[in-house]
């Protein structure tokens, strides 16, 4: 089975096997927002075994009218609160938000493939 993923409307492919060799650049680096909706909040809080309100207080912050997952600052970099450095992966992978599931196929990158390639070694020209 191939690890190469293609999505209609995008002029690149994604090689998912590159994730194992990457230092989770999609989960670390510049500060950003990892938005979660109410269903995702419920799913993640259940997955990690926390009451929803405790989860919100511990792991989320308000960005306008949306919630976003908090980050940790490590040196000059930031990383998602659920990035596990020891495993080089996501601690909530099975319950991760749609924003994470759909990476690198974001509308933002449709016309910014060169920028995306700097972040993600799994991006391949179509």
Show the helix and strand layout.
Blueprint: E1 4-6, E2 12-15, E3 28-29, E4 35-36, H1 38-48, H2 52-59, E5 60-63, E6 66-69, E7 71-74, E8 77-80, E9 83-84, E10 89-90, H3 98-101, H4 113-119, E11 123-125
Give a quick set of tags describing it:
three-stranded antiparallel sheet, 126 residues, alpha+beta, single chain, globular
Give a concise summary.
By secondary structure, this protein is α+β, with helices and mostly antiparallel strands. It has four helices and eleven strands. The protein has one domain.
The global form is: globular
Helix/strand-derived class?
alpha+beta
Radius of gyration: 15 Å
In terms of quaternary structure, what is this? Answer: single chain
Ranges with pLDDT <50 over ≥5 residues?
none
How much of the residues is beta strand, in percent?
Answer: 25-35%
Largest sheet: 3 strands, antiparallel
The termini sit apart by: 19 Å
The total beta strand count reads 11
Describe the structure.
Helix content is 24%, strand content 27%. The protein has 126 residues and is α+β, with helices and mostly antiparallel strands. The chain has one domain. The protein has a 3-stranded antiparallel sheet with strand order 1-2-11, with helices on one face. Strands 3-8-7 form a 3-stranded antiparallel sheet, with no helix packed on it. The chain has a 3-stranded antiparallel sheet with strand order 4-6-5. A hairpin with a 2-residue loop joins strand 5 and strand 6.
